[in-house]
Amino acid sequence: MEIIIEKGCGLDVHKETVVGCIMGTGIKKEVRTYTAMTNDLLRLKGWLQEAGVTHVAMESTGVYWKPVFNILEDHFEVILVNARHVKNVPGRKTDVQDSEWLCRLLRSGLLRGSFIPPRGIRELRDLTRYKRKLIQTIVAEKQRVEKVLEDANIKLSSIASDTFGASGKKIIEELMRGKLEAEEMAELSKGRLRQKRENLKEALVGEVREHHKFMIKVSLKHIRAMEKILLGVERKIREKMERDYKEEDQLLQTLPGVKENASTVIAEIGVNMDIFPDEMHLTSWAGMSPGNNESAGKKKPGSTTYGNKCLKAILTEFAWVASRMKDTYLRSKYHSLVGRRGKKRTLVALGHKILIMCYHILKYKRPYKELGVDYLDQRRKDKITRSYIKRLNHLGYEVTLREAA
Prior knowledge:
The protein is of the alpha/beta class and 405 residues long. It folds into three domains: 7-107, eRF1 domain 2 (Nucleotidyltransferase, domain 5); 120-244; 252-364, no CATH class. The chain contains 17 helices and seven strands.
């Protein structure tokens, strides 16, 4: 194989050890093992600097690569590679051989590095992903409260659309005190729920025992604690966005369905789109593009590729919100696809479009331009007209077209 990089190093990273192999012009192949402790990683850095190594390659093993990357990123060009792309010959796998194989591939220019955003984006990513986990925890705890209420024969969730809305919270607090009757608790309802007071009276008749009260109180305490932490995390995200990414945040919020969640997109893909050659590379990296599945000249359906799970989830949420917004291009695109592709595939296709829009907004620093709900109809006007004429002719009608005034 042709040698492209003169002096390189391959690292096989584990939780407790790091095995390194260096090769290159004027270097005798050498393999050393270090622990994953910071002082030993500093010794690893010194060894590489003494040998004149310029490039380092390592596999993305869980989170164990991060301490090594933190030490080496400022002094070498570090390439983080997908373990599926660098498999060695079966039956010849050891830590030493893995590091040597990585080094050989690195020097031959056969490794493709993963996208590692700058430190500021990585910190924002930690915050947004933790925020998402907190929200999931709060939702799970609220569902647990609803489950306990069902066990106590309280059917509040069957009447109220939001069990933890303004009315629901007051009713649950009174259930914990146990001093009011069902009729009195039903009078605590507000807004549209007051129109269902008679049904609410029936729903609040149950058998709330001390066990139920204890379980609900513990869950409510947990919810309040998580909500307090969530407020702190959201405040930190807002501060970081205002300080570092205010312009990009405002531009992305012009997209339908994104709103205040623009920080999540920035945290996952960054703000420098020059890293991706074009929008298709970005959608492929995110796992929002279908894969290729062709054999013997026949193309078969290909599912979306494995990519950034967090980004895929948030893009699907954006697509669902955008599909329900009136008078938008994305809504009309959703309805044009959902009949023949189904809801799930259509949401992925819509998320794919939203990601492409994000790419162009961030690359050219321009806000989203709404095309309008009739954009697709105008673009395919002749095709739609021919289709309807053909159907009417099939039903036995003669059609004469005339432009409306």
